[in-house]
Amino acid sequence: MRFTLTAGEVAAIVGGRIIGDPEQRVTHVAPIETADAEALIFIHAPQYVEKIAESPARVVLIRQDLVNRAVEVSRNDRTWIVVDNPQVALVALHQHVSRPSRLPRGVHPMAYVDEAVRAQLDESVYIAPFAYVSEGCRIGKNVKIFPHVYLGPGCEVGDNTILHAGVKVYSRTHIGRHCIIHSGAVIGSDGFGFVIADGRQQKVPQLGRVIIKDHVEIGANTVIDRATLTATIIEEGVKLDNLIQVAHNVVIGKETVIAAQTGISGSTQVGPYCMIGGQVGMAGHLRIAERTRIGAKSGIARSIKTPGEDWLGAPALPARQTKKIWYALRFLPEIYRQWRRFLKQKTT
């Protein structure tokens, strides 16, 4: 993204402190490795400080505790914009310089929208070709529905929400305001419930729904199943990556983030502000305490009751314990060789 701002203007946008020339011009943000003289580079971790000397960039967005060392190793002609968190500052800068997408409004002639729903649509809504909006749906203001989206009967979509191409939303699903749902996501499909009767697997009817609250983002090809009787609930601010399975009756607490290929089994409740790595598997009917952090490929077989802990491994344990086990495993081959030698000596 290209723009033209002075270092002083950038500092004002991000709430930073200037060291150097506030009139220095910047036209884009770039990594240290590819930056030119008019790029704004950002330093958010100590390992990048030594690389500053190699960069021609004249303006640096930098974390407060790193600036003194960076000035020591750098040229004297640089301008520094000092902030507490460069990544948060970049979000503010991006929001300032980006231009909203100019999407068309209205219902395309090749979309199907139930007549009663169509009569209640706000003029700011866009419904693309080949989208299908069933009876009883309620669509908020400024909603964008792209091609091949399906909304089943009785769905609700809140203001400013975007449904990208190919999203499938089963009946009676509630999607809040300011949500983004990416292509291929399926919301409200049946939970995986069966019971043996007369020697055969009989389907347990899935009569509940899915409730997605405000400011949620759901990645491509993620699936969220409807509850058996009540609701599968995704609380406000949750961010789900691609290829995630959320089973029936699951509740995910507010502002939790979950990386790709994670699977959460039925009736598990994940607390608020958790961070869950990729390919994590969770058994059903668990309780995960708030602010829990779970490392990639972990297997969670029991509830985590203490808030703010780090867990790792399969089966998962508190991360410090798992790391001790992994360290000890390095010595297992040698211990095994010694044990074999001992057995051989004992039998001779």
Would you write up a description of this structure?
It contains six helices and 39 strands. With 348 residues, the chain is of the alpha/beta class. A twelve-stranded mixed beta sheet has the order 8-10-13-16-19-24-27-30-33-36-38-39, covered by helices on one side. Helix 2 (67-73) links the parallel strand 6 and strand 7 (79-83). It is flat, with a radius of gyration of 26 Å. 34% of the residues are buried.
In short:
The chain has 348 residues and is of the alpha/beta class. 17% of the residues lie in helices and 29% in strands.
The CATH fourth-level homologous superfamily of the largest domain: Hexapeptide repeat proteins
Gyration radius from CA atoms, angstroms: 26 Å
What sort of overall outline do the alpha carbons produce when their principal axes are compared?
flat
Question: Helix share of residues?
Answer: 10-25%
Q: Please tell me the CATH architecture of the largest domain by its name.
A: 3 Solenoid
Helix/strand layout:
Blueprint: E1 5-6, H1 7-14, E2 17-19, E3 25-26, E4 28-29, E5 39-43, E6 59-63, H2 67-73, E7 79-83, H3 86-97, E8 106-107, E9 112-113, H4 115-120, E10 126-127, E11 132-133, E12 138-139, E13 144-145, E14 150-151, E15 156-157, E16 162-163, E17 168-169, E18 174-175, E19 180-181, E20 186-189, E21 194-197, E22 200-203, E23 209-212, E24 217-218, E25 223-225, E26 231-234, E27 239-240, E28 245-246, E29 251-252, E30 257-258, E31 263-264, E32 269-270, E33 275-276, E34 281-282, E35 287-288, E36 293-294, E37 299-300, E38 310-312, E39 317-318, H5 319-329, H6 332-347
Parallel strand pairs: 4-5, 5-6, 6-7, 8-10, 9-11, 10-13, 11-14, 12-15, 13-16, 14-17, 15-18, 16-19, 17-20, 18-23, 19-24, 20-25, 23-26, 24-27, 25-28, 26-29, 27-30, 28-31, 29-32, 30-33, 31-34, 32-35, 33-36, 34-37, 36-38
Antiparallel strand pairs: 1-3, 2-7, 21-22, 38-39
